[in-house]
Each structure stands twice: as structure tokens, then as C-alpha cells.
Amino acid sequence: MVIVQASKLTLPNPSLFSPHITSILCEPTSHSLALMHSDSSFSLYPSFSPSSSFPSLHTLIPSPSSSSTFLLLQSSNPNFNPRVLFIVCGPHRAGSEILLRFYILRKSKVFAKARVICSQKDLRFQSNLGVLVNVKHGVSIKLAGSINYFAMYSVSSSKIWVFGAKMEGSDEGDDDGVVVKLMRCAVLECPKPIWSLSVSFGFLLLGEEHGVRVFNLRRLVKGRDNKAKNSKLDSRGSSLPNGVVGHDCRKHGASDRGGKNRSIEGVSGITCNGDVEWKTGKHHGPVKQMNAKFRQDDRDGSTCFVSLKRYEMETKLSGKVSISTKAVSIQALSQRKFLVLDSDGDLHLLCLSNSVMAANISGHMRKLPHTMKVQNMAILPDVSLISQTVWISDGHNTVHVLAIDMDNALNATDGNDGDDKLLHLPVVQVIFSGERIQDVVSLASDVILILGQGSLYAYAIS
Description:
six-stranded mixed beta sheet; six-stranded antiparallel beta sheet; globular; 462 residues
């Protein structure tokens, strides 16, 4: 028998004049929660648990803010423990510059402003503000982060910047001597509009019109090296998947379907995903960042475009015309499988045929059976699970809980482009909300937060 436990969460210091919540972000390893308010400010809560009341101690990030993301700092140095970083961007000097503000989760379980080192051109750190990027803010900025890397997309500049972050200093004691070193690693020219942005499991995924474009993140960071260097780095380089739940990065190996741990694609001596240190020969230290420039339509094998199924409609005047369908949200299910939400409210399963360690990338897209016109989805990927739980909402008053069998998903996508084969996608539970749903976020495979009209609700299924 399925048991659903529901509770309404009371926010601290409620006030008639307090700005209401508009969206939620969650960092699963530390259970940190970021609540964005209607005035574009943020409230940061560390170690959040839905079974208890909201902690009274939180960090307020003032407006203006245009986008934000969590980033997990990990290192191959055993003296460093993984640390959580919250990054928020906004306009500065009337939008003539972009301001990046960094908040690190201290050992005392409080978010505080991080000290940042950046020495590259057009980047400068001011202790009272943050990192100033000499780029016009424009109409919109989008951030997406994972482990040690994050991407920033500017609609007005038609560019994506890929940044790497690493920890420096001392991680001992409670005084938090950690310093964050920020490096701009690559610039991607984007002549076509980007509707969604994701950095997951060593891939940079761009939601475009009619499909998803996938880049090998390691290739973007390393730049255009020759084949010999690539081969040498591939044999010693490393990458761990973003979003792994409940594992130490330095010891983690992906779980196969038999339950035994194995290293990622046969790589030995694994360090952390996006680690800016590489071991090449006798030299062990930071590799010089190339700040390489790429184009959105590069066709060098380390990128591919996977199309959504094109839809057509009949018109009385001109006959058939194609409907413009955009990939508006991309979330990871596992290392090579991603769930894509399009602008029509339909879901698609993207399966990449090769891993991030392979030289070439290819993939297949499968449209999932109709359940509803989806407005929001939430997934917490765990590579150790055969079945993944997906939470989808119609944006009105219902949330459907789906169970996706990863073996079935793999067989239905790899090497088969037929339209007649549908995935088995059972709805295991339906949740009805008394308020119109604005946002959903998964805290665990069986726990979800639902944002209503200014109220937060926690649902746990057992």
C-alpha cells in the first residue's frame, strides 16, 4: 500500500510585506535550499529537512538577481572535503557589467560570501561585491552548474561562457580558509537562440528549436588539442557524473545493473568531475586554460544535435507548416539519459550512445507517451537505481509520479528510431494540490517540495 505524507511548511518571520516565493533550487548533497522571491532576492537555507521546521538562521542575498545555480566543489586532494557553492548573477552599473556573487557553505552550516581569485582578462574580484565580468548583462542571463564547472549564457551577446572553479587555501579548522579560484575555460558562439541550459555528467546540453545540442564538456575545457595530446589526456584524465547521490567522489564508481561498482568507462585513478588538475607524465598541476572559442554548430565529433520529432499542422491557405518546438528544460536521469521537456508540454527521452570519455558523441530521442501537458518536472538522478522517479506537474493542481525503468529506456532508444515503439511509463501516484502549482523540486527519490501560491508543501511517498 502506498502511503503519502503531506505537510505545509511554515516560513520564518512571515510578514504581510514580505515578497512571496517564485521558484526553488535544491542542492542534494548538503540538502541546501535556495528560495527566490518576487523582488529577485534569495534566501539560502543549509541542511534543510522537510520533517522539521525551517531553520531560523539563513542567508539573505539582496536583489537584483537574474539567475542562480548550485555548484559542488570537489578536489583530488584528500585534505579537502567537498564544499557547496551558490552562484547568483545580476546586472551591475546599469547593466554594463555582469556581477557574479559567490556564497560558500561553511563548516558551521552557514552560507557566507566566498573569497574569489580571478586573474584573467575582463574578470575582477571586489570583496564588497563579487566577480565583475566585463560583458553587458542584456535582457537575460542563464546559469547552469554541476561539479567544479558552470556555464553562463547571455541572450544579448549570443555567447556561452564555461567557467571552472577550484578550492585553494586551508580547509582545516572552523575559520574557513578556503579560497575559490575562478577560471574562464571556453567561450561558445551561439548564433541560434538557446531555450534551456544544462551541465550534467560531463556534458553541456543546449535546448534549441527542434532539438538538443550536446557538447563534451572536457573537450570544451581542454580546447582544440591534437590527437596525441587528447589520447594522452584521455588515458589519464577523469570525470565523475554530476548528481550522484550518497557517494564520496574520490571513491565513487558507477553502479552497473548487477549492483557491483565499476569505474566510469574503465577509467582508473578517477578524480572528480571537472577537476581542473590533470596528471600528465611527471607533471602534476594546473593545466593552462586555453579559453578556447567554439561555435554552436561545430562538427568536430565532440558535439551532436539530436532532433525532436517535428510536428506539422494544416492551414487553409498554405497547406502544411511546421510548428516551432523548443527544448525548454533538460534534466539528467543517468549518465547517458536525459529527460527533455518541449514547449508543447511533451516529454522526450534523450539517450546518448557514447559516454563523456568517448571521442565522438551521438544520440537518439524518443517521445514519451502522453500523460498531460507538462509545465514542471523534477528528478534526482541516482546511478545506483534501476528505476528512476520523475515528478511532473501540469502547472495547475496535480503532480504525477512516474517510474522510468532504465533498462527499458535503454533498449527503446539505442539504435532504434522507429515511431511505433513506446516506453512503458507507469504513473505510480497522483498528488492533488489545493493551490495552483508554480514549481516542484525533488529532495529525494520519494520526497518532493511543491511551491503553490506563496506556500510550500512537502510530500513523502512510502
